[in-house]
Amino acid sequence: PFQVKVASSGATYEVAANETVVQALQKHGIEILTSCEQGVCGTCITRVLQGECDHRDLYFTDDEKAKNDQFTPCCSRAKTEVLVLDL
Ligand code: FES
């Protein structure tokens, strides 16, 4: 598990091992638009302000992944304990 922090509110939410970031935020009324939910379409792309992403998508190039400034919360996770999202 890891945590996601919503930059606009400062609130932090736990993402359990068996759920996605999108699902974890949805439980708290924060909706991220999704389509494929498999890391293919790019619909859910969210900016990352802090923390290291564990990219699991097929959408970004390796260079884009290395920049670590956006990720696909429908499937990607975090390598650090907290990921701060530009939401
Ligand atoms: Fe398609 Fe996340 S919903 S990449």
TrEMBL record:
The keyword Transferase does not apply. Keywords: 2Fe-2S, Flavoprotein, FMN, Iron, Iron-sulfur, Metal-binding, Oxidoreductase. GO terms for molecular function: 2 iron, 2 sulfur cluster binding; metal ion binding; oxidoreductase activity. Residues 2-87 form the 2Fe-2S ferredoxin-type domain. It comes from the Bacteria. This is Oxidoreductase. The chain holds residues 232 to 318 of 318 of the full protein.
